Amino acid sequence: xxxxxxxxxxxxxxxxxxxxxxxxxxxxxxxxxxxxxxxxxxxxxxxxxxxxxxxxxxxxxxxxxxxxxxxxxxxxxxxxxxxxxxxxxxxxxxxxxxxxxxxxxxxxxxxxxxxxxxxxxxxxxxxxxxxxxxxxxxxxxxxxxxxxxxxxxxxxxxxxxxxxxxxxxxxxxxxxxxxxxxxxxxxxxxxxxxxxxxxxxxxxxxxxxxxxxxxxxxxxxxxxxxxxxxxxxxxxxxxxxxxxxxxxxxxxxxxxxxxxxxxxxxxxxxxxxxxxxxxxxxxxxxxxxxxxxxxxxxxxxxxxxxxxxxxxxxxxxxxxxxxxxxxxxxxxxxxxxxxxxxxxxxxxxxxxxxxxxxxxxxxxxxxxxxxxxxxxxxxxxxxxxxxxxxxxxxxxxxxxxxxxxxxxxxxxxxxxxxxxxxxxxxxxxxxxxxxxxxxxxxxxxxxxxxxxxxxxxxxxxxxxxxxxxxxxxxxxxxxxxxxxxxxxxxxxxxxxxxxxxxxxxxxxxxxxxxxxxxxxxxxxxxxxxxxxxxxxxxxxxxxxxxxx
Length: 548
What we know:
The protein is α+β, with helices and mostly antiparallel strands. It folds into 2 domains: 98-196, CATH 2.40.50.140; 237-535, BirA Bifunctional Protein, domain 2 (2-Layer Sandwich), CATH 3.30.930.10. The protein is built from 16 helices and 17 strands. The protein has helices at 2-20, 22-31, 39-72, 149-156, 206-209, 223-228, 230-233, 237-259, 298-306, 347-367, 369-378, 395-404, 417-431, 482-491, 500-504, 520-528; strands spanning 79-81, 109-122, 125-132, 135-142, 163-172, 185-196, 263-264, 270-271, 283-286, 289-293, 311-319, 332-341, 391-394, 435-439, 462-467, 470-477, 513-519. The strands form 3 sheets. The protein has an 8-stranded mixed sheet with strand order 7-11-12-17-16-15-14-13, with helices on both faces. A 5-stranded mixed beta barrel has the order 2-3-4-6-5. Strands 8-10-9 form a 3-stranded antiparallel sheet, with no helix packed on it. A hairpin with a 2-residue loop joins strand 3 and strand 4. Helix 1 (2-20) packs across helix 3 (39-72) and helix 8 (237-259) packs across helix 10 (347-367). It is elongated, with a radius of gyration of 35 Å.
């Protein structure tokens, strides 16, 4: 009976199909009668029409249900997705930063912006963790005469990492909210608007990337996954804190030297010859010839001193084409360099450098205590120790300490990385400091422009500076006499024509001078006690990584 009913309903539709079909309509015109339709074709057509009718019925029902929900949703104007921001208007609204929320604001309605870190719907409530940088606050939405069930469902379904604007009333938390940085308060949610929605599937979870190694509760994100998805990894509270402290390293470096009358300069990064006289340089095409990316601002710092800008420093990119994949080497890093003229002895410069680091360490501990604590929660490390004034050891003393510790080493051998670390442990045990200066290196292991020691030509007026047993800065008194400079360059088999402008800069009179250069990322890594320099480089470049 149902089949016959469907056939009767399908006759008009079938005739309509035939009338609009060019072949069938011509056949009807020529014959004057309807063309025959097989039972199989009629059956398929009937099934198709039934399916379309069912689909239309479902769509109509869903629309009716949605209309009914909208009619009942008394909160529909209090939540939803905002139009894309095109800077079309200024509303005058005032936002409060998550970190600035305070229990003194209890009872006030505030507007905050942050990322959806986590949301959980429980019955008629939704608990939302809102995160901004390394600060977070709990927002609670509860069904009442102002908050509808539909709004609760929408808030709970918003994808993690979406940026949202939340209006809420500040209330004191009855029980400390241990999962948020704002433990003593929460917000009673009033509105919820999505500014920018994240994709629902994330390549890594922020909580997983924030979990200390060796703890239970979920996976630990490995380094390659972090670096391949660096934007997400940088959102973790730890990464946010690391780069705030990194900002402090540069800030305090500049601050100290500016206070001592130094001038910040900016040196070329495209140069005609290798700065250090070695082969570990990146060659680049330069019009009809070749050039190199600067390994160091060394030569130009010295030229500035020759030009009577007697105390200079620079902050900028440094490039090293070293095929080294260690925990502390990068192909590009931020160089913090200093150079200064002195009157009688290069220790005048060495004292300034030592005091500069002490000032930086004090400033970091004072200004960035919160950030240091955040980093230590995920990557525990002993507090960085130093003595004042900075400890200075002569190279022969270090050799003696190593030999007493069982290391076989020659008087003029350079220190290997394992020996540097072992020496750092010996110094820490004896002097209780993670920071020290090693003076009077053997001449043959230093660059061509290093001044020989006047008391023993096998040594030099040069120094390295160490943190936690790892070298962070190499420096020296520079040769400022052009004849001696040419002689030393020849010993190092450097073509004089490639450094002619450098040598010539000393022909018109030059003050004695000294200085050094340090990698900002390495200082940051060792100060925080981290295990890999890639954690302190925002977008690290090494022999195996060129993206992102």
